[in-house]
Amino acid sequence: MVASARKMEKITVFLVDSQGLFRQGVKLALNQTPDIEVVGEADLSDEVPELIQTFSPHIALMDANPPFLDGLDLARRVTQRCPTVSVIALTSHEDDDEFFQAIRSGAAAYLGKRASADELAEAIRRVHRGEYPINDSLLARPRVAQQVLRQFQSLSLMGKRAEALAAPLSPRELEILTYIAQGFQNKQIAHTLAISEQTIKNHITSILRKLDANDRTHAVVLAIRQGWISVEGKPKPPQSKISPENAAYSTGNPE
Asked: What is the pTM for the complete model shown?
C-alpha cells in the first residue's frame, strides 16, 4: 500500500501570472494530467513568495514578463526564500536579455506561453526530476550562449565576490572548461591540447562531479558566476595542425 501511494503522488504546482484567463487555462490543462496538480494560483504581488512558502509546491510557474512587476525579480526572491521549490519561467515573447535574467533568477526552465499543455507538463516533469531544461535552451542558441556567458563575466558584484573563492578545479580542468564556454566540442579541445578525446571526457566527468553540475553548460555557468573562467580567456583552437613543439609541451605535462 505504501508503494502504491508513492506511485500516485502528484507533482504539485503553484501558478503565478498577471492574466487570470491564462491562469485558468493552465490550471484546467494541468489538472487533467494524472501526475500533476495545481495547488494554488496568484496574481503578481509582493505576497507571492510567502504564498508559495505556505503552499510548498514542487514547482512554481512564474510569469516572466508582466506589465507592472518584474516577474523574474519575483522569481529570484522565490528561489532564495523557498530553495526546495523549482521555478519555471513562462514568457509571452522570448527575448535574449530576458533569457539571461531567467538564468540569473535561478529558474530551472524558460518556456514560451505558446507551448502546448503536453510540452509544459513534460517540462514540469523534467524539472521535478532535478533536470535543468534551461540549459538545453542555452545550448540550442549558441550566439545567445556567448552573450549570456559574457554578461555573467561582466557582473562586477559577482566578480568581487569570486575573488575570495578558490576554484575546486585543476588548472587543466579550468582550461578545458574555458574552451567549452567558447562553444568547442571534445574533439576540437583534444586537438588543441594534443591529448586524447577520452582524456577530455575524463576531465569533463571530473568537472561535473566537483561542481555538482547537471551538464557541460551548467558547469560553465557555475564557473563564470564564480569568476573562475572567462569566455575570452583562451585563444580559439587553430585551424592548422599543432606544431611538434606545442604537442611536446602539451603531452609533457600531467593531465
From this structure: 0.61
CATH of 145-251, picked from 2.40.50.100, 1.10.357.10, 1.10.10.10, 3.90.1150.10, is 1.10.10.10
pLDDT in tens, 161-220: 433 345 688 888 889 998 888 888 899 999 999 999 999 999 998 898 888 888 888 888
- For residue 47, CA distances in Å to 16, 69, 74, 86, 88 come to 11, 12, 10, 18, 18
User: What distance in Å separates the CA atoms of residue 111 and residue 127, rounded to the nearest whole number?
Assistant: 12
Local structure of 183: helix, strand or coil: coil
pLDDT tens digit sequence for 106-134: 888 999 999 999 999 999 999 999 888 88
Which residues does 81 contact at the CB level (< 8 Å), separation at least 6?
Answer: 49, 52, 53
Domains 2-140 and 145-251 share a fold: no
Which class is domain 2-140? alpha beta
Distance, CA of 108 to CA of 39 (rounded, Å): 20
User: pLDDT grade, residue 75 (50/70/90)?
Assistant: confident
How do the domains of the chain map onto residue ranges?
2-140, 145-251
Residue with cell 552573450: 147
